[in-house]
Amino acid sequence: MAVKSCDAIVIGAGPAGAAASRRLVEGGMNTLLVEKYKLPRRKMCSGLLSRWSVDFVHRHFGPMPETVYTETPFLKGFGFNFPSLRETALAPTKSPLPYVRRDRFDCFLAQGSGAEIKDGVRLTGIEEEKDGFKILCQRSRKDGKTTRVTFRSRYVVAADGMNSRAVGCVLPDSRRGMPVTTGIQKFYRAEIDLDPDYFHLVFHPHVGFFPWVNMKGERVVVGVSGLEHRKAIRYYDNFVALLEEKFGLKNKELLREEAMAGYMMAYLNHFVLGKGNFLAAGDAAGFIHGAEGISAALVSGDLAAQSILQADDLDSKAVGLYRRNVQGEVDRCLDNLNPLRMSKNAPMIVDGKAFRAKLSLKSVRLIYEDLKAFAAQDIGVKETGMGRVAKQNMIHHLLHRRYPVEL
After folding, report:
1. Which of 99, 117, 93, 96 is nearest to 21 (CA)?
2. Which residues pair with 117 in a beta bridge?
3. Separation CA 294–CA 5 (nearest Å)
4. Residue 172: what pLDDT?
5. What residues are paired with 213 via a beta bridge?
6. How far is residue 107's CA from residue 122's CA, in Å, rounded to a whole number?
7. Helix axes 318-325, 294-314, angle to 10 degrees
8. Rg (Cα) of the chain, in Å, rounded?
9. Residue 172 · residue 192 · CB < 8 Å
10. Angle, CA 270 vertex, CA 266 and CA 271 arms, to 5°
11. Among residues 284, 292, 348, which one has the least CA distance to residue 322?
């Protein structure tokens, strides 16, 4: 069995993997981008791009083709729905939000990276060698069988998502004790009494800690997140019943359903950066900006690749350089989990003046009480320690202008 050798292998063809690959290729490295599914492939995600993501893509990949956008290429902002308000509180963002299809968007980035793409190739193991890594994979064949494929490289970037198999191979204990979130998202052909130009968040109790509704053409997308699989299923059923009762969801025909589960590390000040010349980026490392992950993936993937290029020039290990280079991105992730900082350093900025102008003082008081009730529901946050860590971070940063994180 022939073994293909290269300078760097990137596992995962999402935004983090594409950003890392492009930087490595630009730095002169022979780079393979390995993806377990054939491209384009679906990804459970809203498809909203922040200003940070748009700026990064335009600078490094160029203008996005029209084919990556949904039927509604831009949204106006967010709709906040509270039990005490009769109408949705519409919060326009300071600039329109690009609205993309993740399968096409990710494929555009991967193809634009300049790396040699190996899609339909599933990672099965990573063996550390004296001068690098042996990457063990399986390639899917048209007859349904698989063929073993082996690569060798001096550097590896793990960019294969929240449940990174690559991280599990090299750092098997690095995520021990981390809470796991489950997300459920279903696409319906349906009718609903919500403005299709906004991404809607619903702050009613008993529907999980991140219930959302968005429209893509004739499709209504309904999703929830929960910290336990069984709870997530219950939250989803409750949410659909609420939408039918309060928001006019009707005549629904199920078109597609998706689910995901993964570690929530940043919420506990935990980031997995790698070891030696094995680095992790994006979801695989724990990077996320609140509930938005694309911008964090792009930036951390790029920083991982920069660290590898620097390490190659200095003949040193990449992870030490990565710890230093990625510190600002760690701070930005934690800023987006800090109530005192998130409005100053958020990837998607709501036009606060326009939003507040629509609300009476009575409405503001009612929203405050609704948010207290929403936060008090049994969603498992207290058991994980996420609430305690958030408070500690807020106080520590207020006093010391930094977060208590050791990378």
Report:
1. 117
2. 33
3. 30
4. 95
5. 200, 222
6. 17
7. 130
8. 22
9. no
10. 85
11. 284
Helix-then-strand count for the chain, H and E? 12, 15
Neighbour count for residue 56 (Cβ, 10 Å): 21
CA dihedral over 23, 25, 30, 33, signed as positive or negative: positive
Are 322 and 274 contacting, i.e. CB atoms less than 8 angstroms apart?
A: yes
Token pair for 221: 């997308």
Beta bridge partners of 256: 187
Sign, CA dihedral 65-22-300-16, equals positive
Specify whether the CB–CB gap between 377 and 205 falls below 8 A: yes
- Local structure of 102: helix, strand or coil: helix
Is residue 359 within 8 A of residue 367, CB to CB? The reply is yes
Of 340, 353, 356, nearest to 403 by C-alpha is: 340
Amino acid at 34: V
Say how many C-beta atoms besides its own lie within 10 A of residue 127's C-beta.
Answer: 13
Question: Residue length, the chain?
Answer: 407
pLDDT at 226: 79
* 241: its two tokens: 């019943």
The answer to whether 121 touches 108, Cβ cutoff 8 Å, is no
Alpha helices by DSSP H, 44-113: 51-60, 102-112
Q: How far apart are CA 116 and CA 111, in angstroms?
A: 9
pLDDT in tens, the chain (407 residues): 568 899 999 999 999 999 999 999 999 999 999 999 999 998 988 899 998 999 999 999 999 999 999 988 999 999 999 999 888 999 898 889 999 999 999 999 999 999 999 999 999 999 999 999 999 999 987 787 889 999 999 999 999 999 999 999 999 999 998 988 889 999 999 999 999 999 999 999 888 888 999 998 889 999 998 777 778 888 999 999 999 999 999 999 999 999 988 888 999 999 999 999 999 999 999 999 988 899 999 999 999 999 999 999 999 999 999 999 999 999 999 999 888 887 777 777 776 777 777 788 888 888 888 888 887 776 666 677 787 888 899 999 999 999 999 88
Closest CA relative to residue 220, chosen from 182, 246, 255: 255
User: What DSSP assignment string belongs to 110-146?
Assistant: HHHT-SEEEESEEEEEEEEETTEEEEEEEEE-TTS-E
Tell me the C-alpha distance between 145 and 140, whole Å. 6
CB 405 within 8 A of CB 330: yes
